[in-house]
Amino acid sequence: MAERDYRGGPPAQEHCPRCGATAERGQLVCLECGSRVALTYRRAPSWKVPVAISAVVVTLFLLGAVVAVVAIGDDARREVSAAPPRPQPAGKATKTKAPSPAQPSPAQPSPAQPKADARPGRATDIVRQGALYAWPRALVGFTVVINTAEDRAAATSFAESAARSRPAKIGVIRADDFRTLPKGFYVVFAGRYDTRRQATQATVRLGKRFSGAFTQRIKR
Question: What does the alpha-carbon distance between residue 198 and residue 192 come to, in Å, rounded to a whole number?
């Protein structure tokens, strides 16, 4: 009896592969000829076995290659160690360069010592004393005379008045102490200069303020 298809369709049928007789779906043996109707299921061959075999073959090949390389290296080292040392040619000795004797370093010249002044203690410029300046007796140079007086008080008063505006280094000297000055006077001077030209230029400048100013060399 054919299975009923509850979905409303006719019963599914198959045919015998040998005699062609009709058979129900799921029928294993043909009722006419006795042949097997359902096909035998064959499981697909597994891919794991060939892969495993290939991996084993590759591993064995690599191991063989490594063993061969190690063996070749050992043979080469044994040959090198067994080779006799190469003899050195006779008559050729290694020359060792003797160290050169230390050369004495040239003596360093001692720094030049400044020449001592032949006249120690000699003054080089006028000296400040309070608001005015004094001319040391050993000092030689040129100056500008801006006034003269017969007594020190008058000369000092004039010098202090002139020094307030600071036109130059103003001071008073006693003319009797220097042979280049006329005797019996007190001289009011302005500045000290190394050359007559410098003193003359200062005289022109100071003469605009102090009439009668003149250049004078001072020497004891």
Answer: 9
